[in-house]
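Mods, move this if it's the wrong board.
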Amino acid sequence: MPKKLSSPTEASGPGREQSVDAIAEKISTAILEHRLAPGTKLGEDRLATIFGTSRAKVREVLARLAHEQIVELVPQRGAHVAKPTIEQARDVFEARRLIEPGVLRRLVGTIDDFKMQRLRRHLELEADARQRNDARAVVRLSGEFHLLLAELAGNSALARTMRELSTLTCLIISLYDAPTATSCRADEHEEIVDAIKRGDAKRAETLMLHHLDHIQESLKLDAGSDEADLESILGDQ
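Not the wrong board. Structure tokens:
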């Protein structure tokens, strides 16, 4: 069953409403950490109560997340966390294969000590989360690694696109049962960072494509995962 929304532990301060950006970020993070499963209903009244805000602001948040394809808005049924189809899942990985090598080329061309420190620090956070067996943190940090690459590459449009694709990937992994241990392996992130440090863009791109292959291969995206075609199965009986 879809997981229930839980009230946030942090507040924006007495009498202060949280911004649209802050609310959208909290919902996105919950999706990245697999705390909100695909198909979870996002009721306006409930969200307004949780975040201490108006339904109008909640509608704005949901409209934004729907634009990013993270939320589905269906007339008479309301908003739900998106449930990407198998075809949509394949489209996401195709897009990532086209975009992420370009991100790496740009990053290798602009890499400096500060950016390397950011990357190394992120790898340390991933290693710590794995050591603590913090599954939620592992999932979130694995996705954020790819966002960090796009951010450090210095192209805001690429960063926005990667954020959307990364969140959709988290939904796809949650929906199609990819085990975290094989869907985003720590050693592959480390190898990509090492190639960036050496200035070897071609190697970094190759590693990234293999990495994306490994994630997709861990998913159950075979035709058998689709809904049964009742018409063709029962129609001629």
